[in-house]
Amino acid sequence: MISVSGKKWTERNINKNSVDKIKQDYGFSEILAKLIVSRKFDETEIFNINNDLEITNKFLNNRDYILATNILTSSIKNKEKICILGDYDVDGCSSTSLLVRFFKFIKHPFFYYIPEREKDGYGATKKLFKKLILKQPQLVIMVDCGSTSNDAVSFLNEKNIKSIIIDHHEINRPYPKSDVIINPKKNDGYGEYDYLCATTLTYFLLDIVNKKNNFQYELSNLLIYVLLASICDVMPMRKLNRIIAIDTLKKFNIKKNISFDILFKLNNKKEKLTIDDLGYLIGPIINSSGRLGKSTLSTELLTSDNTELIKKNSRALIELNNKRKDIEKKTLDEIDFKKIEKENQNVIIYINRNIKEGLIGIIAARLKDYFGKPCIVITKSDNIYKASARSTNNYNIGNLIKVLSDKNIIEKGGGHNLAAGFTIKEENISTLDKFIQKDYFNKTSKLISSFNYDAILSSSAVNITFTNEINKMQPFGNSNELPIFLFKKLRVIKSNIINERHITAILKPNTGSSISSICFNSINTEIGNYLLSYKKIINITAQINLNIYNNKKRLQLNIKDVFI
Q1: pLDDT (tens digit, 9 = 90+) per residue, 84-115?
Q2: Which domain holds residue 491?
Q3: Of 58, 148, 186, 461, which has the maximum CB count within 10 A?
Q4: Is residue 176 classed exposed, middle or buried when 0-12, 13-18 and 19+ CB atoms within 10 A define those classes?
Q5: Max Cα separation, the chain?
Q6: Are residues 219 and 286 in the same domain?
Q7: Is residue 467 part of a domain?
Q8: Which residues, 6+ apart, have CB-to-CB distance to 178 below 8 Å?
Q9: If DSSP states are collapsed to H, E and C, what string results for 121-171?
Q10: What one-character DSSP code corresponds to residue 461?
């Protein structure tokens, strides 16, 4: 089934015997059993649907964690000044915030630094450490960065400064000669836990240090930062991440977290915190500081208990995020989506020398979501070409960066399965394009041309009872996506443009009640054209969302594609 946008859609091929067994063993409905089978939930995950599971530390016997615990414990006992270096995104700010709050509690000397994207560049560099060592740290902890910072770590070694790296990005041999590197990508004693972000890894280290030294810090109060980072770094919402999400959302009291409470109030939110709040409200606000050159604002917000400072920083960050939205809209409006569709690239490579460096990641994410393909966005910054990449589950962009680096096509870079960044010389961009499109892609992936929906659904099934049933799979996220359904024989009886980017539509089946819908970022696309002007019967693929506006709740369809 080919859509108006040229995408091929098929129903997920699910083993019926497996579905029947799940129904029989657990008493689940047909649709819930289908979703469990299609997402390949294991027995623990299935049990977690109806039962609470305890968050347990999986790294108590891990060699890296034992070594890091000993180093950190020794530094604490000896009152050694610690420098924390974090990345400027949500994961970096959150993992930094965990360390800051912990060291504040135990009254240990420390300072932290969040690089400014355009001034300092990404991560740990020799140039940056030359500045930071003036404050005479005896231990440097790098969080959400450092895995490819061989020269920077060697510089610290020359100065007899110890270092700990806590990271989840791809790592190349030879590893940086840090005292210890906690990174599941090493595949050394981490088992299956290569899907954890830096904040999660930091949390479990502090858990061990806290208990070993009997500090009695209520570390569980910071699990909200772990969940925030996991969501915003698009970590798989499965297994341990899912356990953390369920437990944290159930126990989190927003009134006891000044930062989140104030952000909610400033955004006129009164509802209990949800995954969507973290991913679409708080996350973008926290990220805006790194994107637009005010990198310390977010970490100050997450680590302060001063109400006035939090209010000040919250307002500043909201203003930055609104500025980011305006720039993003302008940039997306300038993109020729039809031209990109016609080119039918395996990997979307979009070059715009005028995009602000801090926004190329979010533009890449928008293009990836629309086309369903990996996307690389390249801009020019200070005579250097910088790129940000976002990918789909079947194309490891982090591995690609490793290959590009080994072949000297790019200058430097790093990332993980779904996101990466790099710098490149202008003369190598055409080589990059050719290599990715023809050589690397064809050797590692099949053409990404097929999209899946979970089941065919009648519009009459869009009700609270059905929604509550599929919501048993929550929290949704990477590797546990919100289900997509095929709805047939609908007519658009009314459509409107909102915010100059999105289209809302009232859809009417042959029988039954009409239902509201929205299609995001659909202006000047084939999907949008049909929703605005087509008067005949259409079919759609869509997700079912609970829309909350002015604190009023209603179900609506989030349209993914249109068929005629």
Answers
A1: 999 999 999 999 999 999 999 999 999 999 99
A2: 8-12+452-563
A3: 148
A4: buried
A5: 76
A6: no
A7: yes
A8: 142, 146, 153, 163, 164, 165
A9: CCCCCHHHHHHHHHHCCCEEEEECCCCCCHHHHHHHHHCCCEEEEECCCCC
A10: G
